[in-house]
């Protein structure tokens, strides 16, 4: 439960006011429900008693009936307000939690990120965050509001009825309710967790089936993938059936608790009324209030069924959000910058160093091309310059300041894999410069020889499909380069920037980049002659 409490506190941080107001309204709804039924019971019995003894003509029926109507109407409005507040605040908190998880994911080392399957990680984040909506709505808010209502009922019933009735109701609901939660939670934890795991497996396998169906058909793996999807769904349904059974059993147990509390209140109250210690009308208050207090434990039925799913998600989310404190980073450097490698050595683990005592200086406005066979370390040099990798020894610096001292993004790296999002061309470009004007966007497109292509597709508002579908490989590459230009970087790192472009287009793109960024220090991992020819200096690795 400690992990669930950590998540609840995390969600409270940004939505404290709304959740506390929702909690207050939730408690008020429960109090008004108990008051409504208790008052109704007293009114019915007191009116009947007045009629039996012949005082019905003078019995005041107007004020109690008006109060009953007032409580009924106000309770409905309060319930509506409570649902709006708590659900809205929870949805906003979950949205912030997703951003927190993605931000934590982005701080992982480059070596871990390149082994990460983006779709699988996103699927896990979405599923885990969705599983946590029950933490405030079906667990802690109902528990806190229900507990507060039970304590208040204990005090009020002790005053209005008798302390023995009040203690019996409080004890049975408290001990019985908590007992059902722990008993039902233990029974439902494993199947609930298995149902969530199977659901995520089915989602991932089905997405793979849809997105790679051509390749699966070509290699004869389509039947196997279909079987894997069916297996995951079968496991989910089996676990869900067990979880549903546990939920129904917990609901039945809570009904038994409520019945015991009401029966105890009736028996004790009836005994006291028969002995003349209290009136029958006051005894009725205890009985009907006990019936109404069932509402304080009813929401826990869903929590019992989802407890395993929530605990598993809370553990994973907590592990990802508990990041070590990082030293304060410098803001991005301003103005022209020089990039310097000073005696840099880099190795992965105990393997032979990829770079050993490497030295290089790229002045502001200078273009340097790195050439050499695949695997020699060209991309590693760019990653070190971007601060994505840290050298074993030596220093990579911008104007004598280590690149790792700056906030991420001090240099701009365009890797071999171009990434676009579903949306308009303008939205893809403004990922780099949210405040950029349309004129700036067109200038960046012109620099990469893509302006006429974009105009032919409908302009900046032309929509791209998932992962930028709608552009060819070369067009995608140029759009990513245009996005890099919009950042106006002082240091630009390019990994085979003209891959997939013909010679004439490559020359236009490289010339456009130089014209758009005349003071930038540019380091290129170059295979092609056009890229090497655009450089002021070539370094062989």
Keywords, separated by commas or semicolons:
alpha/beta
Note down, in words, how this protein is organized.
- Helix 4 (118-131) packs across helix 10 and helix 8 (222-274) packs across helix 10 (300-321).
- This protein has 17 helices and 11 strands.
- It has helices at residues 2-52, 62-106, 110-113, 118-131, 134-160, 163-211, 213-218, 222-274, 280-292, 300-321, 378-386, 425-429, 438-447, 451-456, 473-486, 503-516, 529-534; strands at 339-346, 355-362, 367-371, 393-398, 401-402, 412-414, 423-424, 463-464, 491-495, 521-525, 537-540.
- A 5-stranded parallel beta sheet has the order 6-9-10-3-11, with helices on both faces. Strands 2-1-4-5 form a 4-stranded antiparallel beta sheet, with helices on one face. The chain has a two-stranded antiparallel sheet with strand order 7-8.
- It is elongated, with a radius of gyration of 34 Å.
- Strand 9 (491-495), helix 16 and strand 10 form a beta-alpha-beta unit.
- The longest helix is centred in the middle third of the chain and has 53 residues, at 222-274.
- With 541 residues, the protein is α/β, with parallel strands linked by helices.
- Helix content is 64%, strand content 9%.
């Amino acid at each position: 439960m400690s992990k669930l409490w950590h998540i609840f506190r995390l969600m409270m941080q940004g939505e404290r006011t709304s959740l506390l107001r929702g909690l207050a309204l939730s408690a008020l709804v429960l109090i008004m429900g108990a008051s409504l039924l208790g008052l109704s019971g007293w009114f019915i019995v007191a009116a009947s008693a007045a009629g039996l003894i012949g005082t019905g003509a003078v019995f005041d029926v107007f004020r109690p009936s008006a109060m009953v109507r007032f409580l009924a109407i106000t309770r409905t409005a309060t319930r509506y307000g409570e649902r709006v507040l708590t659900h809205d605040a929870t949805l906003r908190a979950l949205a912030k939690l997703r951003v927190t998880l993605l931000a934590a994911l982005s701080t992982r080392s480059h070596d871990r990120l390149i082994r990460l399957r983006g779709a699988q990680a996103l699927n896990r984040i979405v599923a885990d965050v969705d599983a946590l909506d029950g933490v405030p709505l079906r667990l802690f808010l109902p528990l806190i509001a229900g507990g507060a209502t039970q304590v208040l009922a204990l005090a009020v019933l002790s005053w209005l009825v008798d302390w023995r009735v009040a203690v019996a109701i409080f004890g049975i609901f408290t001990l019985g309710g908590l007992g059902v939660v722990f008993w039902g939670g233990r029974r439902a934890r494993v199947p609930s967790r298995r149902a969530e795991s199977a659901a995520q497996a089915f989602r991932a396998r089905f997405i793979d089936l849809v997105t790679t169906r051509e390749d699966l058909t070509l290699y004869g793996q389509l039947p196997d993938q279909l079987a894997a999807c069916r297996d995951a769904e079968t496991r989910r349904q089996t676990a869900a059936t067990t979880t549903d059974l546990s939920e129904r059993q917990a609901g039945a147990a809570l009904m038994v608790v409520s019945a015991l509390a009401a029966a105890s209140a009736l028996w004790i109250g009836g005994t006291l009324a028969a002995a003349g210690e209290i009136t029958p009308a006051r005894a009725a208050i205890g009985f009907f209030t006990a019936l109404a207090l069932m509402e304080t434990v009813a929401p826990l039925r869903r929590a019992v069924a989802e407890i395993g799913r929530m605990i598993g998600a809370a553990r994973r989310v907590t592990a990802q959000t508990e990041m070590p404190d990082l030293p304060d980073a410098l803001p991005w450097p301003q103005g022209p910058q020089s990039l310097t490698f000073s005696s840099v050595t880099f190795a992965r683990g105990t393997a032979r160093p990829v770079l050993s005592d490497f030295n290089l200086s790229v002045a502001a406005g200078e273009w340097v091309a790195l050439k050499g066979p695949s695997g020699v370390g060209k991309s590693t040099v760019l990653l070190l310059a971007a601060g994505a990798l840290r050298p074993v020894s030596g220093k990579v610096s911008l104007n004598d300041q280590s690149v790792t001292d700056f906030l991420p993004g001090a240099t701009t790296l365009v890797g071999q894999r171009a990434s676009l999002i579903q949306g308009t061309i303008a939205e893809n470009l403004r990922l780099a410069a949210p405040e950029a004007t349309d004129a700036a966007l067109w200038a960046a497109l012109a620099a990469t020889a893509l302006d006429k292509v974009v105009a032919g597709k409908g302009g900046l508002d032309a929509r791209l499909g998932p992962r930028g579908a709608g552009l060819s490989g070369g067009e995608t590459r140029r759009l990513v380069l245009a996005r890099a230009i919009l950042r106006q970087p002082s240091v630009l790192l390019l990994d085979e920037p003209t891959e997939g472009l013909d010679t004439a287009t490559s020359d236009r793109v490289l010339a456009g980049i130089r014209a758009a960024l005349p003071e930038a220090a540019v380091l290129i991992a170059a295979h092609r002659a056009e890229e090497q020819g655009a450089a002021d200096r070539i370094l062989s690795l």
